[in-house]
Amino acid sequence: MNDREPFTAELRVSSEDTYKTATLRGKHELVADEPTWLPGGLAGHDDHPAPVDYLVMSLASCQVSVLVQCLERNGVDTYRIECNAVVDEYYRDDDHPEEMPPHTALRLGHITVEMVLTTTAAYRDQADQCLITYDQGCIVGQSLSGGIDYTPLTALEIVDSPLGTVDEQ
């Protein structure tokens, strides 16, 4: 993938910001908030999707995108797709740092993606084959099921004067 544009997300957030705004691949902006049900004054306004919402949407939209590509590659030009994705299992991480709020120990255990493909009888065989194989082409689904590895790199900067907004620095 060296000749392809890398998938990136950049965020700059300060204590003055209400929402988190990410710039993806240097050209798309997404805004994230937290749900109102978070405990102890940590709740967001629920004005924008939460980070987990974006994860679920990423999985569902990747699944649909790959299914569409398979259908089009196999000459199926009449179809309708309905996709519903839901986090249906959570668990708590028992090895959770005491410094963190208790709700941050919540982990996703399972996401169900329900895909319904509607087409005409003329495309039955091609559509059926695409439904059997499409998941193998979804980079998000395959990465999630494979256990994505990531590396958190951190740094702490200390300044002597009060902080302005992130834009001023």
TrEMBL record:
Gene3D superfamilies per record: 3.30.300.20
MF-aspect GO terms: peroxidase activity
TM region(s), chain numbering: none
Keywords: Oxidoreductase, Peroxidase
Keyword Nucleotidyltransferase in record: no
Keyword check for Zinc: no
EC number: 1.11.1.-
InterPro entries: KH_dom-like_a/b, OsmC/Ohr_fam, OsmC/Ohrsf
Enzyme class: oxidoreductase
Name of the protein this chain belongs to: OsmC family protein
Species whose genome carries this gene: Halomarina halobia
